[in-house]
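Standup notes
- DV: blocked on the single-chain target, sequence here:
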Amino acid sequence: MLDDASLSAATAAGAAVAEATTAEQWWFVRSWAARFLGRGDLLAELEHLKRLDLSAAAVRQAYDPELRVRMEAALQTRFELLLEESTGVERVERAVQLLHLAQLSRNTYATVAGAAATGAVSPGFDEGAGAPASLVGRIPSETTPFRLRAEAALLDGPPSIHVLAGSAGTGKTQLAAHIARRALRDGSADTVVWVNAASVDTLICGYADASAATTEHDPDQPEHSAEAFRSWLSWTDRRRLVVLDGVPDTVDLHGLWPPARPNGRVLVTARRATSLPGGSGYVELGSYLPEEAADQLMRELLSHGRRDDPLHIAALAADLRQDPSALATAAACMAHDGLTCAAYRERLTRLAGPGGAGPTRDAVTAGWWVAVEAADRQCAGLARPLLELASVLDPHGVPIAVLTSPPALRYLAVRRGQQAPEAPLPATAREVLDTLDVLCRLRLVELDSGLAHPAVRLSTLVQTAVRRAVPVASRDALALSAADALRAVWRTESGRPQSALCRALRSGADLLTGHAGEVLWRSHCHPLLFQAGRNLIDAGLIRAARIRWDWLHARLDQRFGPDHADTLAARGYRARVRGASQDAAGRRHQQASGSPGPSHACPPQWIPRDRRRRSGSGSPAAHEAEALGVLTPSAIPAAPPALRPGTGSPRSGPASGG
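- DV (later): unblocked, structure below
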């Protein structure tokens, strides 16, 4: 018979897990719940993870309160049974664990007040930490089975800034995510901030989000808020861990590095360490050692309920060069198709061996194509064209809304028809979602369904392999379809320029610009490039907007000449942004000295008149003047002191995933 305290703990935990199915912290709650239910048995824990995810998916898709109630009751019963199986101190410890699990639904990691009734505190939570630890941002979900790398020990000590570098697919982000979750669990940080640093403006927006959570600064002024957050980091006594994930080689973070403080740690994931502050630590993450790779592949197979000859496992791990990403994909593919290691190696040889039929001679890349073939067989030829679309967009997050938009569906239907004429046409959004589910199970992509706008993440190595294999005759259609898809979704977010979806669309536009070549600049500039620049202005990212419009105007002037309608339109936007920058500088100057700031170098009201004189009132440039609101000065928030992005392309160039 359970006492009231134990029953309350089971009830609270069941409600917390059911409530979290539609919340951002689901990834963490499910892991805790599965670990509690598995009681140290890895296979049991994995089975509980699958059941929890299936139940959560049903709740999210059905929007039926009854499903959540039934899930809550079932979980409560399981928790009560585990409590009844234990006695004495063990029961108290389990009850405390359930109380902590209940707290996770609030997205905080604090000592549970109810634990005082038992006089026990769960290990990993610091009673004397004061204010509860908080998470800002979204930590990627943990892959299963996760392997803690030996290099993690090098990241725990001084200096305060560490860079975790390595090629794509080596597990940098997963290791950083593990360290961030551990800091929340063990109380070593009061605040953990996770920021997508794929480009300067996504980094600034991430800082602005953190500023809103820590300083209550106005989020409508992202550049000013970002500086306020850096200022807060310089004086706060709270222990904090700031993770900058996926910093590209082309981005210069001068003026954006978190200040070094004894009570603060900064962890950066990147391909290579460039433009680092003095005294930063550097840790290189590579492939597994041979014995680690064989052990990890065995664990991956066990997670799918499969076993194989250890010698064959070791041989396959060697074929795949101990690559962490390739090992995970291989295990998933073997489980999907019911293959042994020997049979899987035969498929690799067929694709990558001498005289092989595949698009590569590299075994790691061939492993991805084996998985793509498996997905195509199940999804009527839709997997490959879907990966093609994702291959020219941002690997940190391709919004599913983009992949299910009408332009994307038209491209998918055409490409599927070319590869499999017997496949039904047209492609539907339901088919896209089903295909993404298969690609996720094959470990080719990762679905992030906990966001308001679900997205797909994938390795840049997979992106590169798929992109290179696109037939030359289809590459222009791919780029134009991706551009049209981004623009179609952007129209639905026109009133929310600072939303996470708009950030993903901006990053996608930048990546696409770098991959598309000349197709976006044929007879005119594709409207997507103007849309991306306008969105930066609307979001208050004036510094980034100025860089983009300077770059876009220069490209258009070089390609079409100064009198082309697109060049004139870009010049108008450039003048508006420069005026806004000077207004901001003037306001800062006035605040500092009380004297008038600099005037506009080119009064905005002159631009429409000049544009109409050159191109006529009915031209596209005149319509751009209308979009600018006749280019009258608008209320644009003040920018912080100089945040100097890198050089060479819009917003420091296309960001590459690390």
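- Follow-up: Residues 106-131, 586-658 have pLDDT under 50 and may be disordered.
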